[in-house]
Design brief:
Elements: H1 8-37, H2 52-66, H3 68-72, H4 74-99, H5 108-112, H6 120-132
Helix pairs in contact: 1-4
């Protein structure tokens, strides 16, 4: 039968390592999205835009204040894609650790092939038989 290698420790390490990237990245994404789509009060109220240049400048200021540039940038999109990929890997690894129930479902009575209500003599006998195999 040989030794069986338990790779659960590697999965826990990988989950911890992934969380070092995911937590700050998710914070950045969520705050950027919140800033982009949060309704803000117009900081230019009361200002009169007299020329086309002033109108363009005011429009740019409003757009910057809305945070739309952050959300439409290539860096933001690439970071969001990488974060989504790592989130999928994180969820897959977490579910695989959870479903790997060899240790959690360890039942010596099943291994020995006896009933749970077996007496000590029957347990010892089944253990001896199993050890000879």
């Amino acid at each position: 039968m040989g030794l069986q290698y338990d790779d659960a420790a590697w999965a826990y390490f990988a989950l911890a390592f992934l969380s070092l990237y995911l937590l700050p990245s998710l914070y950045y994404i969520l705050t950027s999205l919140f800033a982009a789509y949060k309704p803000k009060s117009d900081q230019l109220t009361g200002a009169v835009e007299r020329t086309e240049g002033e109108k363009r400048k005011a429009k740019g200021i409003r757009k910057r204040n809305a945070g739309a540039d952050d959300v439409t940038s290539t860096f933001f999109k690439a970071n969001a894609a990488i974060t989504l990929f790592f989130m999928a890997v994180f969820v897959w690894m977490a579910t695989s650790i959870q479903s790997d129930g060899e240790i959690s479902s360890f039942d010596p009575y099943v291994i020995l092939g006896i009933d749970r209500t077996a007496e000590v003599k029957e347990i010892k006998q089944a253990y001896r038989k199993k050890s000879l195999r």
